[in-house]
Protein backbone atom coordinates (compact mmCIF):
# COMPACT_ATOMS: atom_id res chain seq x y z
CA UNK A 1 0.00 0.00 0.00
CA UNK A 2 1.29 3.51 -0.73
CA UNK A 3 2.63 5.30 2.36
CA UNK A 4 5.15 8.15 2.49
CA UNK A 5 8.61 7.23 1.17
CA UNK A 6 10.08 7.37 4.68
CA UNK A 7 7.79 5.22 6.75
CA UNK A 8 9.54 4.32 9.98
CA UNK A 9 6.90 1.69 10.61
CA UNK A 10 8.32 -0.35 7.72
CA UNK A 11 11.79 -0.24 9.29
CA UNK A 12 10.83 -1.22 12.83
CA UNK A 13 9.17 -4.37 14.06
CA UNK A 14 6.04 -4.26 16.22
CA UNK A 15 8.25 -4.72 19.27
CA UNK A 16 10.64 -2.01 18.09
CA UNK A 17 7.78 0.47 17.72
CA UNK A 18 6.53 -0.48 21.17
CA UNK A 19 9.93 -0.04 22.81
CA UNK A 20 10.49 3.32 21.12
CA UNK A 21 7.03 4.48 22.19
CA UNK A 22 7.69 3.37 25.77
CA UNK A 23 11.03 5.21 25.80
CA UNK A 24 9.45 8.45 24.58
CA UNK A 25 6.67 8.01 27.14
CA UNK A 26 9.23 7.74 29.94
CA UNK A 27 10.99 10.83 28.63
CA UNK A 28 7.69 12.72 28.76
CA UNK A 29 7.22 11.43 32.30
CA UNK A 30 10.66 12.70 33.25
CA UNK A 31 9.76 16.07 31.73
CA UNK A 32 6.62 15.97 33.88
CA UNK A 33 8.81 15.42 36.91
CA UNK A 34 11.30 18.16 35.99
CA UNK A 35 8.65 20.82 35.38
CA UNK A 36 6.92 20.18 38.70
CA UNK A 37 3.29 19.83 39.60
CA UNK A 38 2.25 23.35 38.54
CA UNK A 39 2.90 22.80 34.83
CA UNK A 40 0.62 20.57 32.78
CA UNK A 41 2.56 18.48 30.27
CA UNK A 42 0.01 15.66 30.12
CA UNK A 43 -0.90 16.37 26.43
CA UNK A 44 2.66 15.34 25.47
CA UNK A 45 1.79 11.78 26.48
CA UNK A 46 -0.44 11.65 23.40
CA UNK A 47 2.62 11.85 21.09
CA UNK A 48 4.04 8.36 21.78
CA UNK A 49 0.49 7.00 21.99
CA UNK A 50 -0.23 8.30 18.50
CA UNK A 51 3.01 6.85 17.16
CA UNK A 52 2.32 3.44 18.70
CA UNK A 53 -1.28 3.44 17.46
CA UNK A 54 -0.28 4.31 13.89
CA UNK A 55 2.53 1.80 13.52
CA UNK A 56 1.69 -0.94 16.05
CA UNK A 57 -2.10 -0.95 15.98
CA UNK A 58 -4.58 -1.17 18.83
CA UNK A 59 -2.49 -3.53 20.94
CA UNK A 60 0.49 -1.18 20.72
CA UNK A 61 -1.70 1.80 21.60
CA UNK A 62 -3.22 0.10 24.65
CA UNK A 63 0.19 -1.08 25.88
CA UNK A 64 1.65 2.41 25.53
CA UNK A 65 -1.42 3.86 27.29
CA UNK A 66 -0.70 1.67 30.31
CA UNK A 67 2.94 2.79 30.31
CA UNK A 68 1.85 6.42 29.94
CA UNK A 69 -0.64 6.27 32.80
CA UNK A 70 1.92 4.57 35.06
CA UNK A 71 4.57 7.15 34.12
CA UNK A 72 2.19 9.98 34.89
CA UNK A 73 1.46 8.54 38.33
CA UNK A 74 5.07 7.75 39.29
CA UNK A 75 6.70 10.95 38.06
CA UNK A 76 4.00 13.21 39.47
CA UNK A 77 4.25 11.52 42.85
CA UNK A 78 8.04 11.90 42.79
CA UNK A 79 7.55 15.53 41.76
CA UNK A 80 5.56 16.27 44.90
CA UNK A 81 1.93 15.90 43.81
CA UNK A 82 -0.29 14.78 46.68
CA UNK A 83 -4.02 14.09 46.96
CA UNK A 84 -6.28 13.94 49.95
CA UNK A 85 -6.88 10.21 49.66
CA UNK A 86 -5.38 7.24 47.82
CA UNK A 87 -8.68 6.76 46.00
CA UNK A 88 -8.08 10.06 44.20
CA UNK A 89 -4.86 8.62 42.80
CA UNK A 90 -6.77 5.54 41.64
CA UNK A 91 -9.53 7.53 39.97
CA UNK A 92 -7.09 9.89 38.24
CA UNK A 93 -4.93 6.98 37.12
CA UNK A 94 -7.95 5.34 35.52
CA UNK A 95 -9.17 8.54 33.85
CA UNK A 96 -5.72 9.45 32.54
CA UNK A 97 -5.18 5.94 31.23
CA UNK A 98 -8.64 5.86 29.67
CA UNK A 99 -8.00 9.15 27.87
CA UNK A 100 -4.70 7.86 26.47
CA UNK A 101 -6.20 4.51 25.47
CA UNK A 102 -9.21 6.13 23.80
CA UNK A 103 -7.09 8.45 21.67
CA UNK A 104 -4.78 5.57 20.74
CA UNK A 105 -7.72 3.32 19.88
CA UNK A 106 -9.27 5.98 17.64
CA UNK A 107 -5.99 6.62 15.81
CA UNK A 108 -5.40 2.89 15.29
CA UNK A 109 -8.96 2.54 13.97
CA UNK A 110 -8.44 5.40 11.51
CA UNK A 111 -5.17 3.85 10.35
CA UNK A 112 -6.81 0.44 9.85
CA UNK A 113 -9.68 2.02 7.91
CA UNK A 114 -7.27 3.98 5.74
CA UNK A 115 -5.23 0.85 5.02
CA UNK A 116 -8.40 -1.08 4.18
CA UNK A 117 -9.69 1.61 1.83
CA UNK A 118 -6.28 1.93 0.20
CA UNK A 119 -6.18 -1.82 -0.36
CA UNK A 120 -9.68 -1.83 -1.83
CA UNK A 121 -8.79 1.02 -4.17
CA UNK A 122 -5.83 -0.96 -5.52
CA UNK A 123 -7.26 -4.47 -5.82
CA UNK A 124 -9.84 -6.21 -7.93
CA UNK A 125 -12.67 -7.12 -5.53
CA UNK A 126 -13.49 -10.42 -7.24
CA UNK A 127 -10.05 -11.99 -7.58
CA UNK A 128 -7.97 -10.12 -5.01
CA UNK A 129 -5.32 -9.33 -7.62
CA UNK A 130 -4.15 -5.78 -8.31
CA UNK A 131 -6.41 -3.59 -10.43
CA UNK A 132 -5.29 -1.80 -13.58
CA UNK A 133 -4.29 1.42 -11.80
CA UNK A 134 -2.08 -0.32 -9.25
CA UNK A 135 -0.60 -2.51 -11.98
CA UNK A 136 0.32 0.55 -14.05
CA UNK A 137 2.12 2.01 -11.04
CA UNK A 138 4.01 -1.26 -10.56
CA UNK A 139 5.08 -1.36 -14.20
CA UNK A 140 6.40 2.20 -14.04
CA UNK A 141 8.30 1.43 -10.87
CA UNK A 142 9.85 -1.76 -12.24
CA UNK A 143 10.73 -0.12 -15.56
CA UNK A 144 12.62 2.61 -13.71
CA UNK A 145 14.45 0.00 -11.63
CA UNK A 146 15.28 -2.08 -14.72
CA UNK A 147 16.72 1.00 -16.43
CA UNK A 148 18.95 1.76 -13.44
CA UNK A 149 20.14 -1.82 -13.10
CA UNK A 150 20.24 -2.70 -16.80
CA UNK A 151 18.03 -5.71 -16.16
CA UNK A 152 15.39 -7.30 -18.39
CA UNK A 153 11.73 -7.56 -17.52
CA UNK A 154 8.77 -9.22 -19.18
CA UNK A 155 5.18 -8.06 -19.34
CA UNK A 156 2.44 -10.53 -20.28
CA UNK A 157 -1.25 -10.14 -21.07
CA UNK A 158 -3.55 -13.15 -20.80
CA UNK A 159 -7.06 -13.65 -22.11
CA UNK A 160 -9.42 -16.52 -21.27
CA UNK A 161 -10.34 -18.28 -24.50
CA UNK A 162 -14.07 -18.33 -25.23
CA UNK A 163 -14.98 -16.54 -22.03
CA UNK A 164 -17.88 -14.63 -23.60
CA UNK A 165 -19.47 -17.90 -24.69
CA UNK A 166 -19.17 -19.21 -21.12
CA UNK A 167 -20.99 -16.16 -19.78
CA UNK A 168 -23.63 -16.30 -22.50
CA UNK A 169 -24.38 -20.01 -22.06
CA UNK A 170 -23.77 -20.63 -18.35
CA UNK A 171 -24.35 -17.23 -16.82
CA UNK A 172 -22.22 -14.84 -14.82
CA UNK A 173 -22.06 -17.11 -11.76
CA UNK A 174 -20.03 -19.66 -13.72
CA UNK A 175 -18.09 -16.88 -15.44
CA UNK A 176 -17.10 -15.38 -12.09
CA UNK A 177 -16.02 -18.81 -10.87
CA UNK A 178 -13.78 -19.17 -13.91
CA UNK A 179 -12.17 -15.79 -13.21
CA UNK A 180 -11.47 -16.70 -9.59
CA UNK A 181 -10.00 -20.09 -10.53
CA UNK A 182 -7.72 -18.55 -13.13
CA UNK A 183 -6.61 -15.91 -10.63
CA UNK A 184 -5.81 -18.67 -8.12
CA UNK A 185 -3.74 -20.49 -10.76
CA UNK A 186 -1.87 -17.27 -11.50
CA UNK A 187 -1.03 -16.79 -7.82
CA UNK A 188 0.11 -20.41 -7.46
CA UNK A 189 2.34 -20.29 -10.54
CA UNK A 190 4.07 -16.94 -10.11
CA UNK A 191 7.12 -16.26 -7.99
CA UNK A 192 7.05 -14.02 -4.93
CA UNK A 193 8.63 -11.14 -6.88
CA UNK A 194 6.16 -11.31 -9.78
CA UNK A 195 3.11 -9.03 -9.97
CA UNK A 196 -0.32 -10.01 -11.26
CA UNK A 197 -3.44 -7.98 -11.97
CA UNK A 198 -6.89 -8.30 -13.42
CA UNK A 199 -7.31 -5.49 -15.92
CA UNK A 200 -11.03 -6.03 -16.41
CA UNK A 201 -13.32 -8.59 -17.96
CA UNK A 202 -11.32 -11.75 -18.59
CA UNK A 203 -8.00 -10.03 -19.16
CA UNK A 204 -5.14 -10.54 -16.71
CA UNK A 205 -1.65 -9.06 -16.73
CA UNK A 206 1.58 -10.41 -15.31
CA UNK A 207 4.80 -8.49 -14.71
CA UNK A 208 7.99 -10.55 -14.38
CA UNK A 209 10.81 -8.35 -13.05
CA UNK A 210 14.43 -9.28 -13.81
CA UNK A 211 13.22 -11.99 -16.19
CA UNK A 212 14.65 -12.66 -19.64
CA UNK A 213 12.67 -14.08 -22.53
CA UNK A 214 13.97 -17.59 -21.77
CA UNK A 215 12.86 -17.47 -18.13
CA UNK A 216 9.59 -15.82 -19.01
CA UNK A 217 8.83 -18.44 -21.64
CA UNK A 218 9.25 -21.25 -19.12
CA UNK A 219 7.11 -19.53 -16.48
CA UNK A 220 4.32 -18.48 -18.82
CA UNK A 221 4.15 -21.90 -20.43
CA UNK A 222 3.82 -23.36 -16.95
CA UNK A 223 0.95 -20.97 -16.27
CA UNK A 224 -0.78 -21.88 -19.52
CA UNK A 225 -0.51 -25.62 -18.86
CA UNK A 226 -1.53 -25.18 -15.22
CA UNK A 227 -4.77 -23.51 -16.26
CA UNK A 228 -5.45 -25.95 -19.11
CA UNK A 229 -4.93 -28.99 -16.88
CA UNK A 230 -6.21 -27.76 -13.55
CA UNK A 231 -8.99 -25.24 -14.15
CA UNK A 232 -12.33 -26.69 -15.16
CA UNK A 233 -15.93 -25.89 -14.32
CA UNK A 234 -19.33 -27.14 -15.39
CA UNK A 235 -18.67 -25.18 -18.58
CA UNK A 236 -15.68 -27.40 -19.34
CA UNK A 237 -11.91 -26.87 -19.35
CA UNK A 238 -10.39 -23.40 -19.48
CA UNK A 239 -7.49 -22.26 -21.64
CA UNK A 240 -5.47 -19.07 -21.90
CA UNK A 241 -3.96 -17.12 -24.75
CA UNK A 242 -0.86 -15.35 -23.46
CA UNK A 243 1.08 -12.59 -25.17
CA UNK A 244 4.31 -11.32 -23.66
CA UNK A 245 6.97 -8.71 -24.38
CA UNK A 246 10.48 -8.79 -22.98
CA UNK A 247 12.42 -5.55 -22.61
CA UNK A 248 16.11 -6.27 -22.17
CA UNK A 249 17.18 -3.19 -20.19
CA UNK A 250 14.03 -1.34 -19.16
CA UNK A 251 14.45 1.05 -22.10
CA UNK A 252 10.74 1.14 -22.89
CA UNK A 253 7.95 3.56 -22.21
CA UNK A 254 4.88 2.25 -20.44
CA UNK A 255 2.35 2.81 -23.21
CA UNK A 256 4.46 1.13 -25.91
CA UNK A 257 5.18 -1.85 -23.67
CA UNK A 258 1.51 -2.31 -22.84
CA UNK A 259 0.46 -1.96 -26.49
CA UNK A 260 3.00 -4.50 -27.73
CA UNK A 261 2.04 -7.01 -25.03
CA UNK A 262 -1.60 -6.56 -25.99
CA UNK A 263 -0.79 -7.16 -29.66
CA UNK A 264 1.19 -10.28 -28.77
CA UNK A 265 -1.79 -11.62 -26.85
CA UNK A 266 -4.15 -11.09 -29.80
CA UNK A 267 -1.58 -12.73 -32.08
CA UNK A 268 -1.64 -15.78 -29.79
CA UNK A 269 -5.44 -15.93 -30.06
CA UNK A 270 -5.33 -15.50 -33.84
CA UNK A 271 -2.84 -18.34 -34.23
CA UNK A 272 -5.01 -20.92 -32.50
CA UNK A 273 -5.47 -19.93 -28.83
CA UNK A 274 -4.23 -21.87 -25.79
CA UNK A 275 -0.65 -20.81 -26.43
CA UNK A 276 2.09 -18.37 -25.47
CA UNK A 277 3.38 -15.72 -27.87
CA UNK A 278 6.60 -14.11 -26.64
CA UNK A 279 8.21 -11.19 -28.50
CA UNK A 280 11.03 -8.75 -27.85
CA UNK A 281 10.25 -5.10 -27.27
CA UNK A 282 10.96 -2.86 -30.23
CA UNK A 283 11.11 0.92 -30.08
CA UNK A 284 8.45 2.42 -32.28
CA UNK A 285 8.99 5.57 -34.27
Q: Would you kindly provide a written description of the structure presented here, covering whatever features stand out?
A:
- The chain has helices spanning 14-35, 46-78, 86-122, 132-149, 163-170, 172-189, 213-230, 254-270, and strands at residues 153-160, 195-200, 203-209, 232-233, 236-237, 240-247, 276-280.
- It is α+β, with helices and mostly antiparallel strands and 285 residues long.
- It folds into two domains: 8-122, no CATH class; 132-280, Alpha-Beta Plaits (2-Layer Sandwich).
- The protein is elongated, with a radius of gyration of 28 Å.
- Mean pLDDT is 89; it is low at 1-7.
Helix tally equals 8
CATH superfamily of the largest domain: Reverse transcriptase/Diguanylate cyclase domain
Classified by CATH, the class of the largest domain is Alpha Beta
Rg, rounded, reads 28 Å
Low-confidence stretches: 1-7
